[in-house]
Amino acid sequence: MEKKIFEGEVPIYVVQPEDLIGLKVQAMANDPQRKFREMADIESVMDLYKKELEWKRIREYFELFDMNDEYEALRRRFTDAE
Fold it and tell me: What is the pLDDT of residues 21-46, one digit of tens each?
């Protein structure tokens, strides 16, 4: 995603929140000892962007790594808070 900085003068590319969450899910799958740290990061991102998130794309990341229960818990928590 492109963002403009310095009063719109300079375009930069940043990762979208959903993709950052996907990377965190992959990190948990690769090293289960990281689960609590990565989930804390995911929750922070979700808290910041909850009204803007594409939940379908997030679900796909969790499904890819067979973490459906974790996805459902997060979805309930962050969509019920709206």
Answer: 999 999 999 999 999 999 999 999 99
- Give the integer Cα–Cα distance in Å for 53 and 31: 25
Do residues 1 and 16 touch, judged by C-beta distance below 8 A? Answer: yes
Of the candidates 52, 73, 67, which has an alpha carbon nearest to the alpha carbon of residue 22?
Answer: 67
Alpha helix (H) ranges present in the chain?
A: 17-30, 35-49, 55-64, 68-80
**CA–CA gap between residue 1 and residue 56 (Å, rounded):** 18
CA 58 to chain centroid: 7
- The candidate with the shortest Cα–Cα distance to 39, out of 79, 63, 16, 73, is 73
Q: Is the dihedral of CA 60, 71, 26, 45 positive or negative?
A: positive
